[in-house]
Amino acid sequence: MMKTLGIALGAGVTSAVLFAVITTASPVAVVLAYLAPLPIMIAGLGFPHPAGVAAALIGGGTVGLALGPVAGLMFSLALALPAWYLARLAVLGRPSGAAAAPAASGTAPAEWYPVAPLLLRLAALATAPVLLAGLAVIWRYGSYDAAAAAMAERLSVVLSRDALSGELRSADFVRYAPVLIAASGVVMLSVNLWLAGRAVAISDRLPRPWPTLPDAIRLPGPAAGVLAVLVAATFLPEPFGLGAAVLAAALAVVFLFEGLATVHAVTRGLSARGAILCAVYLVTAFVFPWPLLALVVLGCIDCLVPSLRQRAGIAFTKPPKRKP
């Protein structure tokens, strides 16, 4: 018990410190804050369940004491509790045909929590704080128009000192910032969960076998229909259109992951696979936004056409031999 408490205390305080350094507003601080969920996820993946939840609570309390109750609440809702919950889901397993049970229930589970539903829940956790913050701001100012005007006025002061302000208006930031925050939240939680999983797996404390991600990231078919509905709903009047855009951006990132998984799957067996994957990642990172959109579309196609990978894999990796 004392060991678990010590692990939770160390993970929670470390996570809080990583988050709190963002107040220095330096580039290094932003990177460190990006890794704030990592210690809590490591505690949740590699140690008994109480260590993860205690780490999340300790981290939220530490931030609240250091930066105030509002910051502590934001940290808990946006980072700490999602980190614990995702780690908890990742190590849930069940015997074949039996009810769900924790991985540490005795015998090794035959079925582990699937990666695709885990990503969908991750996207929901990334968008929930953004939507709640939007509702809180609207409630404070009485209406969406009043809230948008107030936020735009505050941002105009910052943008007047920004080199990009000549191209972007503060009103644009009010609309696009929640969408970008939701999308980046999905990336942040996904990257931290992957890093935590690899770290715990290297230390031989990960209860489940490491999944083959290109094969595991396969979203259910209805998810593509949900994305199409959300994209269409972005044309609704505000704030409904903005809320739909937030949800669509988060789900689109998950389809982006499936698009990348499809590229990994269909290039198996190719001699130039390394060069192809390197080119895809470089173009995706430095050319915006068309490669990202192409991968999202590829993910949607892969979701709707389950046989796409098999057919492409046969075509790429097993070309017919030429007759002499």
From TrEMBL:
UniProt-recorded name of the protein: DUF2232 domain-containing protein
Key words, A-Z: Membrane, Transmembrane, Transmembrane helix
Transmembrane region(s): 54-87, 118-139, 176-195, 216-236, 242-263, 275-298
ATP-binding recorded as keyword: no
